[in-house]
UniProtKB/TrEMBL annotation:
Listed InterPro entries: Acyl_CoA_acyltransferase, GNAT_dom
CDD domains (alphabetical): NAT_SF
Domain N-acetyltransferase positions: 118-252
SUPFAM superfamilies reported for this sequence: Acyl-CoA N-acyltransferases (Nat) (SSF55729)
Spans through the membrane: none
Protein name, UniProt field: Ribosomal protein S18 acetylase RimI-like enzyme
Source organism of this protein record: Kribbella aluminosa
Length: 252
């Protein structure tokens, strides 16, 4: 968004901010909509805000109205290169909570040997759920879920079904020790999650999972920049194509 300064003078016309739907706000001037705000609630329960306007003053008024209507914490995502939009949200009281790098994994085989004693295969639901719960417990006790993509935050009640068809798993001695989930709803497959039990890390299991699942398919991935192991993995097999900032207002 390229913000243009809005400097009311003697002839300035009033702007009305209205909540026109549960998740939408409009800024209206002379019967014309000059700004829009949106709130979306993600599956993890977090509320993300966005504002579409060219004028700083209208952005500020929409932000005030939206923040007053939405309980804390509130979030937004900004491209790392969009300094103007970042400044707009910071002016509204938002601070950077997370920096994420975006990677493209090019087509072509990923050089990776399957570690001795490990088999890469498709998943069954019962052992997959057991591994999923074990990984969630390790992440929750360690780096925390703020380092993971939003869609893999802990499920409320733990009752959301797992679809084994979306997963590739690593098995040692009959036990699942690593998993990979690839989403295919976008133009290019997206790596939704790759995770390995702590006791099995640094043995090449994650790389073997990626090599097995992707074959010659180009894919994308987003990685929290504080996750040094994941950053090193994707810097080794892909190229960085950009990044984004997740900002927060109010305590999580």
């Amino acid at each position: 968004m390229n913000s243009l300064p809005f400097r009311p003078g003697l002839g300035a016309r009033p702007v009305t901010i209205s909540r026109v739907a549960e998740n939408q706000w409009h800024a209206v001037q002379d019967d014309l909509t000059v700004g829009r705000g949106y709130a979306s609630r993600r599956l993890d329960g977090r509320t993300f805000l966005s504002i579409d306007t060219w004028q700083d003053a209208i952005f500020d008024r929409l932000a005030v109205a939206m923040l007053a209507d939405q309980p804390a914490p509130r979030y937004t995502v900004v491209d790392e290169t969009d300094r103007e939009l970042t400044a707009d949200w910071e002016r509204a009281g938002f601070v950077v909570a997370r920096r994420e790098s975006e990677f493209a994994v090019p087509s072509g085989p990923i050089p990776a040997a399957v570690p001795a004693g490990v088999t890469i295969t498709t998943a069954d639901e019962a052992p997959l759920r057991e591994l999923d719960q074990a990984i969630r417990a390790e992440v929750g006790a360690g780096p925390g879920w703020h380092t993971m993509p939003a869609e893999v935050l802990p499920w409320q009640g733990g009752t959301r079904p797992l679809d084994p068809a979306k997963y590739t798993v690593a098995v040692r001695d009959g036990r699942y020790v690593g998993l990979l989930r690839v989403a295919t709803r976008t133009r290019r497959p997206r790596i939704g999650l790759v995770a390995v039990l702590a006791a099995e890390r640094r043995r090449g299991i994650a790389r073997a999972l990626l090599s097995h699942a992707l074959h010659n398919t180009e894919a994308t991935a987003e990685v929290d920049e504080t996750n040094t192991a994941a950053m090193a993995l994707f810097e080794g097999i892909g190229r960085r194509t950009g990044g984004s900032l997740e900002l927060i207002s109010g305590k999580a």
